[in-house]
Structure formats: structure tokens, C-alpha cells
Amino acid sequence: MREVQTSFDKILTLTAEEADPLVIEEEDDGVSQDILERSSVAKLYSPKPVHKKSFKNRMLEIWDPVGEVNTKELLGNHFLFTFGHIEDKQNIIKFDP
């Protein structure tokens, strides 16, 4: 799956390899837009170190999504969640946390 560089670049630090621009062909644009619409970035605020895998697993338990959710750890306690169904993302935004 291709990842798309978005406006999140202000809060993310990219490696040299990741900093290379991603070229999206016209036929890929719909797929990329779909992925962006199903994705959400979360930041964990904690004064103490946190076991990141436990955090991700706990959020999935709380959200109880219908579809699959891909998670990626980003820098600075940021996490990228990409939902299999747009309804899952809409539910977590609507009902929190």
C-alpha cells in the first residue's frame, strides 16, 4: 500500500528515503483520496513512557471497528490509523476517544 505525504509533514520528521516526493498518477488519485479519508492521526499525551503496542491494542478494543485497522507508529507519540471502512473512522470521531 502506498503512503501519501500530506499536510502532516509539519509535525513529522521524515527520513531521507521518506522525504523523496511521491508521484501520484491520475488513475491513482481516487485510491489515494480514499486512503486519506479513512485515515486519522492520533497523538498520545503522557508524561511517562507508554508501551506503544498496548496503547494501539487498547484503542482498537475501545473503538471495536467492524473492519480491519492498520496502525503505524510515527514520531513523537503520533500514530497513524487507517481504517478498512470509512464508517469506523466516522464512529470514533463522533463518539470519541
Polypeptide structure, described:
This protein has 97 residues and is α+β, with helices and mostly antiparallel strands. The chain has a single domain, classed as 2-Layer Sandwich (Alpha-Beta Plaits), CATH 3.30.70. 36% of the residues lie in helices and 16% in strands. The chain contains four helices and three strands; from the N terminus they run ααβαββα. A three-stranded antiparallel sheet has the order 1-3-2. The radius of gyration is 14 Å and the shape is flat. It comes from Prunus dulcis.
User: What is the number of helical segments per DSSP (H or I, 4+ residues)?
Assistant: 4
Query: Which structural category fits the helices and strands?
Result: alpha+beta
Task: Give the H and E element order.
Answer: HHEHEEH
What's the β-strand tally?
Answer: 3
Unreliable stretches (pLDDT < 50, length at least 5) are: 1-9
CATH topology: Alpha-Beta Plaits
Number of domains: 1
> Reading side by side through the largest sheet, how are the strands ordered?
1-3-2
Query: Which strand-content bin applies to the residues?
Result: 15-25%
Described by the principal axes of the CA atoms, the overall outline is: flat
Highest-level CATH class: Alpha Beta
Mean of residue pLDDT values = 78
Sheet of most strands: 3 strands, antiparallel
The radius of gyration over CA amounts to 14 Å
Q: How far apart lie the N and C ends?
A: 27 Å
Name of the CATH architecture:
2-Layer Sandwich
Helix content: 25-40%
Protein name: DUF4283 domain-containing protein
Organism: Prunus dulcis (Almond)
